[in-house]
């Protein structure tokens, strides 16, 4: 086991200076390492306190919640220390508290950086009070949380901040094994027009070299090359180091855990296993959705059954109301011939299901002469005309030519989008078939 650099995430309320601080730290880093080149944004960078020292800090440079939560969502907690930036002129705000909650939930220690101390008329005492009121136990008040007063804009006390981070890291005694198989976390992935698929990995265990084979979820790579945050090629990446890797066949998402395997066959086997597991997960999820849908259907049919009973009762009343008169059907039962056309099987079935109860009733008859899915046809109109019936459509449009034909033939086409309205109309139509009510026995 060997000591490794601490991984730091900078968090805090919007506009409190996270980006400015990251930029300032990144610039310090470039100057310190004397590359002087353009820094690359690769999702993380290594900061050196002094050129000669081994005291390196790795900053995740996607500020705020996004990095933290996408990592956490995949169960990869890479952050060792959170630097909580609080603007001196604003104090503790909503996202300061959220950041604090994130850090506490993940059991990650925080260091508070009160920023913008270059501003005139700031009230440091009040900012500190707001920190205390939020449950942050600052060292100067007997707690264990370090506080640094900085100006990210002017580059004030950034050295001090790095010292605090290193002191915290020392207490945490962060160690990793640089000799074992590589374990890493993907910080960022992108496709570069010139270099193809790239991922920034943060190495957690082992040392990554060219030619190594990596797998993460459904992604895999044979490492063709590695670059540090200055875009400089590196031969080896050790624990705590962020490195941009090329050689990916498919890209891994941010937060994906990555492991090294011995050969391509092993990589493919692992990916197969992963895809089987994912399939199984998907099947389980689909099953859940199906169960929920079935539950909804059950509720729908129960509701429908209730309506059927109610309708049956009302139709019985209609029949009783008209029974003293001569009936319009052969056996003395009112009868209505209908054609049903619907948008999908389900809706046609639901209507038929209800209609069936009247067809079997000896008090009234609904006779379905045709039914089906799709628009009303010429044949439907002719049938309805022959039987003096009505065409009910559910959730479909009838072509103009058919509407004119129906008008010519004196056939009613009634369209509904709400099933209960359609049933209510059926009752009305049946009622119309009955003679005038003289005897009011309802
Ligand atoms: P973020 O939303 O937390 O990333 O905040 P930014 O880094 O974008 O900073 C928000 C504003 O505060 C910008 O206009 C910065 O220039 C300004 N700012 C950041 N740090 C300091 C500072 O130390 N002093 C002063 N005076 N302004 C700062």
UniProtKB/TrEMBL annotation:
The keyword Mitochondrion applies. One of its GO terms (cellular component) is cytoplasm. One of its GO terms (biological process) is mitochondrial translational initiation. It is found in: Mitochondrion. It comes from the Eukaryota. Keywords: GTP-binding, Initiation factor, Mitochondrion, Nucleotide-binding, Protein biosynthesis, Transit peptide. GO terms for molecular function: GTP binding; GTPase activity; translation initiation factor activity. Residues 3-179 form the Tr-type G domain. The keyword Transit peptide applies. One of the essential components for the initiation of protein synthesis. Protects formylmethionyl-tRNA from spontaneous hydrolysis and promotes its binding to the 30S ribosomal subunits. Also involved in the hydrolysis of GTP during the formation of the 70S ribosomal complex. Belongs to the TRAFAC class translation factor GTPase superfamily. Classic translation factor GTPase family. IF-2 subfamily. This is Translation initiation factor IF-2, mitochondrial. It comes from Helobdella robusta (Californian leech).
